[in-house]
Amino acid sequence: MELTVLGKYGPYPSKSTGCTSGYLVKNKGDLLVMDMGSGTLARLMALTDIREVRHIFISHLHYDHTSDLLPFRYLLEELNHSVNIYTHREDTAWYRLLFSHPAFKVTDIDENTEIKAGSMTLSFLPMEHAVRDYAIIVKGEKTLSYTGDAVYNDNVLKCLKISDTLLADCSKPEDFKGPHMTVRQARELGKNGGAKIIATHLSPDFDPSSEFKDFKNITVAEELKTYTI
Ligand SMILES: [Zn+2]
Q1: Residue by residue, what is the 3-state secondary structure of 142-161?
Q2: What pairs with residue 196 in β-bridges?
Q3: Which domains does the chain have, with CATH numbers?
Q4: What is the pLDDT of residue 7?
Q5: How far is the CA of 26 from the centre of ligand 1 (A)?
Q6: How far is the CA of 62 from the centre of ligand 1 (A)?
Q7: Cα separation of 126 and 103, whole Å?
Q8: What is the per-residue pLDDT for 126?
C-alpha cells in the first residue's frame, strides 16, 4: 500500500513548487485521492491515467483542500468521465458550487459511514477544526489515517492507534495560534510509538524538519514522494 503526496502546503502554496493539500493512495492496483487543493490536478494527471481515478475523499471544505475540483470538472466533461466524491453535506454556497455538476456523484459521509473503494475500505472520524472535518481511515493491505485539518482531539490518538501510518496536520510552529496541530503536538503523538507519522499541511515559510530530529517515527511530508504504508 502506497501514499504519494501531491501537495503538502496550507493554507496557500509556497511560491516555488508547492501545491496545497492532496494525496494519492494505491492498494493492489486500486487508487483513490484524498483532498484536491490547488495545483494537485496537474500532478494527479502526471501520475495516473485520470480515467482510473474513480474515488475522491474530501476531509473538509476549505479552499486549500478542494479548489482543484473546479477545473477537474472541465477535464471530466472532456473525457465524458465521472467520479465518486465522498464528503459531508453542508448548506453553503461553496458546497453547492463545488458539487452541483453531473460529473460528480456525491455521497454524504459521517462517522457511521463505511465505503468500499476497490480493495480498500474507508471509514471516518470527526476531527476538531474551524469547520467540520473528518479524518479518513483507509484500510487496504495496511491502514493509513489522514486527519485532514485538525487541532488535537482524542480521535487523533485513536487514528494513530489503529494505523500503520498517520498522515497528520501537525507541522505548524510551536507558537502558532490557529486550528492546526503544532510540532509540539506532533512530538507528543510520536511518543506513543507504533504508527509512523507523516507531518503535513506545512506553512510555506516554516520547515519543521529539525523539530523532529529525535523522532525516528516522524517524517515531514515531501511533495511527489511515495511512501510505503
Ligand atoms: Zn482547513
Answers
A1: CEEEECCCCECCHHHHHHHH
A2: 165
A3: 2-228 (3.60.15.10)
A4: 98
A5: 24
A6: 5
A7: 27
A8: 98
**Which residues of the chain, if any, have pLDDT below 50?**
none
CA of 28 to the centre of ligand 1 (A): 30
Amino acid at position 67, single letter: S
- How much distance in Å is there from the Cα of 50 to the middle of ligand 1? 26
Q: For residue 21, report the distance from its CA to the centre of ligand 1, in Å.
A: 10
89 alpha carbon – ligand 1 mean position (Å)? 16
What nine digits make up the cell of 143? 491502514
Q: Could you report the per-residue pLDDT of 8-60, keeping only the tens digit for each? A: 999 999 998 889 999 999 999 999 999 999 999 999 999 999 999 999 999 99
